[in-house]
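#struct-queue
[09:14] JT: dropping the first one here, sequence first, then the structure tokens:
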Amino acid sequence: MSKPGDVVAVVLAAGLSRRYGNGDKLLHPLGGRPLCLHIAATLRRLPFSRRVAVCSNPAVAQLFEAEGFAVVRNADPQIGLGSSLRIAVQAAGNASPILVCLADMPFVTPTHLLALAHAFQAGSADPVASAGPDFIGPPAIFSAGLLEHLPANGEGGARALLRGATTMEAAPRELADFDTRAALEAASAGDLDPSLQP
């Protein structure tokens, strides 16, 4: 079992918002604050050793900095998710374990993130991932050593790392991510944790 205080929490926030249209989806308002600040607020409440955000948009980077995150820049986000993960490992100083969260998943709860941390076996190479119907993915906890072997280009390598992972169930709504403007406009702020409302 790992302790939250041993975990470095990383938010991947360098996506290109290709399906969103004009603008950056992470800045789209949801429940009175930009989409990306929901996971930031959740992580800020938890006793992780460090909080890091990998960003490409300076406006998004400023928001995470204001929340007390160490921000590192991904200058080539078009390469793929693997590039952000490699940057995250470097920013974490090769610390282990690393909790990887996505900036477009606003409904993840503190309870679920703590469950992931407690399920990770200290010193293990086996990741712990979130699971829902037909889904295994982030938030997930990896050893830094495992992520170091991830190719910088593409996303397939990241999915491959989760094969055989220990999984922690979460409600489908909790694992929802948002890619389009229409989906964000249809999302209900009522699904957010009231204590995280601005």
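[09:21] JT: and here's the second one, same format:
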Amino acid sequence: MPPGVRLFLFFAALAGSNCATTRTSEDKGPVTVRYPSKRTDLQQLSKAFSKFSVVDTNSLYTITLCADVPYNKNPRKVLYRKQPGHVFLVLEQVLDGSDTISHAFGFYPVRPASVMLFKNVRGEIRNNQGREYDTEMRLPVSASVFFALLDSSVILGMHKYNLNRYNCYDYGVQLFNMVAESHPLQIQYVKFPFIWGRGGSPTGLYRQFKLLKESDSFWSAHVRFGSFKAPQTRGSEIKH
């Protein structure tokens, strides 16, 4: 298990009062994740993750980091019609027999307007199924890393939302970097004024992907640009 994953699982024992159990792998057994009692969004995320099956030992696993820029005709534009775009993740398990379990999700402020008034505000995880986006970076992962990543997704969702230091970009990239191994993405923080599009934003991630696609031989094969749509949450029909 990567050191970053172990670290976050350690901090999980220090947070909250309610518990959710997420499967990690057949040989590792369940890991207990703790979260604040009123965080129903984390409970829903944990419930969605429970659909991923550890029974199928021939499964293939992937993590996809997605960026939806606010204005498709000009990816450099940070705001369009008061919308900043979004960065989110898609986790998928392709079972032996081609059935797929998937979940798309991202980090948001509970009250978007509050980010302009306060430094740290309440955040929440929302389902991003069916969301359209413009670029993606996808990696295959092992089963053990994939199931550890599910727990880390819940743990990192406990963060306060901070427009400059911990927004949807930071949440997504930090989780993605847990499986990027020797090729982590450089986390860039928002540089104001925000409308310039510098740093950690969907537009900033689009720019990062474009640079990596053109200059990095490792990442060029994993980055795609186009018109995509996040999969619908699937797996309720799968029996564990």
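[09:30] RK: nice, looked through the second one.
[09:31] RK: Residues 25 and 144 are 6 Å apart (CA to CA).
[09:31] JT: good to know. The beta strands are 18-23, 30-35, 60-68, 86-94, 100-109, 123-127, 132-141, 223-229.
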